[in-house]
Specification:
The chain is built from 12 helices and 13 strands. By secondary structure, it is of the alpha/beta class. The strands form 3 sheets. It has a 7-stranded mixed β-sheet with strand order 1-7-6-5-4-2-3, sandwiched between helices. Helix 8 links the parallel strand 5 and strand 6. Helix 2 packs antiparallel against helix 10, helix 3 runs parallel beside helix 10 and helix 4 packs parallel to helix 5.
Length: about 400
């Protein structure tokens, strides 16, 4: 660290150099990210609320009121009139909170995972093989056994495998509404029936799909139920900083019942609110205000237009790839396209694309090039991308 203060102008000059090394969403070449450039209004509001701390909400009652409105508005999108929850840093924290609630509930009601018990029972968490790596973190932090259920031929969680893995130690089941790698939506309705029948907590990770599926359904897209309209669903993760166009970090965890927050609460005697359920203590209020602002600005109509435009680009890319000899992993349900070419190894193709300036990602199961059609990717970017693929094929003498 420097000994003497450095002038503000010099600091800003140096920061420009660092910033120039970052990729820009506006270039349309970031093809593997579930995040995008935040709405300009949301950015301004974010800055205006930088000093608010929802870890001590009694000092920031206005920001706390905004959080309550945001939670209620997102709950209304997910068929829940009175939701409980918080705006958090993202899907990882939201998922961890949900599983912690499930673990604590099982500890209290079923004596599973109770350290004080005569015989300690290791709690088990069932997730699809397609689940986000945050559940591996949750299992590690909460000392759970992570059980991976198989996927079916459509890369949805296999219901039979879930049933086979349930036992007396199972504390929760997870379903995904918009898998990270393929955008697949699990049969949440079937999982809800299983969870209800077995009295097991069901969490839905809709970090990606939660801010697009409701609006796509408004437009007539046929997408199965995944939300609180299903009795077995106890909690849902949604990320406003993905399809919600809010600034990073803005995740959301919603619970059906207040008891799930209460089962995690710890005393916070020196703060204005005497109990805390969130993982972090100091909690930035800026994402809350920014999310509130962008939701007001966009409305259901604006979000519908955004989701639909992303799907139009998705279908254009998927159709074009099929015509050019590429093989789709699955037919896109959300704005993710994954594909391979029968004559080009996936990793080699990814490196060739990166060499040409296209930042794609590679899914692990199945291995495939993964493109996420966020709103910073326009039609002209897709045309350029397809031209690059044609050039790669030509250089490899592939027709």
């Amino acid at each position: 660290m420097n000994q003497e203060p450095i002038k503000k102008e010099k600091i800003l000059e140096e920061l420009i150099e660092f910033k120039e090394k970052d990729l820009k969403f506006s270039d349309g070449r970031i093809l593997g990210s579930m995040c995008t450039s935040a709405n300009s209004l949301a950015k301004k509001v974010f800055y205006d609320f930088l000093d608010s701390n929802l870890g001590d909400p009694g000092l920031f009652e206005g920001t706390q009121s905004l959080e309550e409105e945001v939670i209620n508005d997102i709950g209304s999108l997910l068929s829940l009139e009175k939701p409980y929850g918080n705006i958090v840093t993202g899907g990882t924290e939201a998922n961890l909170m949900a599983i912690r609630a499930a673990r604590n509930l099982a500890r209290e009601e079923k004596n599973i995972g109770n350290i004080a018990a005569d015989e300690y029972i290791v709690p088990e968490l069932i997730v699809p093989k397609s689940a986000h790596f945050s559940f591996e973190k949750a299992a590690d932090v909460l000392s759970l056994k992570l059980v991976e259920a198989d996927l079916d031929e459509n890369y949805q969680v296999d219901i039979g495998s879930v049933k086979d893995n349930i036992n007396d130690n199972t504390i929760a089941i997870v379903g995904i509404a918009g898998t990270t790698e393929l955008g697949v939506i699990d049969p949440i309705k079937d999982l809800s029936k299983i969870a209800t029948r077995n009295n097991i907590y069901l969490h839905v990770d809709a970090a990606f799909g939660g801010f697009s599926i409701p609006f796509l359904k408004d437009l007539g897209y046929e997408i199965p139920k995944f939300d609180f309209s299903l009795d077995g669903v106890c909690s849902i993760t949604v990320d406003p900083h993905k399809m919600g166009l809010a600034p990073i970090p803005s995740g959301c965890i919603l619970f059906r019942d207040k008891k799930y927050l209460e089962i995690m609460a710890v005393e916070a005697p020196y703060l204005t609110t005497k109990e805390q359920s969130t993982l972090v203590g100091t909690r930035l209020g800026a994402p809350v205000a920014a999310t509130w602002a962008v939701m007001q600005y966009m409305g259901r109509e604006g979000y519908g237009e955004n989701a639909n435009e992303c799907m139009i680009n998705t279908h254009f890319l998927a159709d074009s790839l099929s015509k050019e000899g590429f093989e789709l992993t699955v037919e896109p349900k959300l704005n993710i396209v994954s594909f391979n070419h029968p004559k080009i190894p996936t990793d080699d193709l990814a490196k060739m694309l990166e060499k040409e300036g296209w930042m794609v990602s590679v899914s692990s199961y199945p291995k495939a090039i993964r493109i996420i059609l966020m709103n910073h990717i326009k039609h002209n970017h897709m045309v350029e991308f397809l031209d690059t693929l044609d050039e790669i094929k030509a250089n490899l003498d592939i027709k």
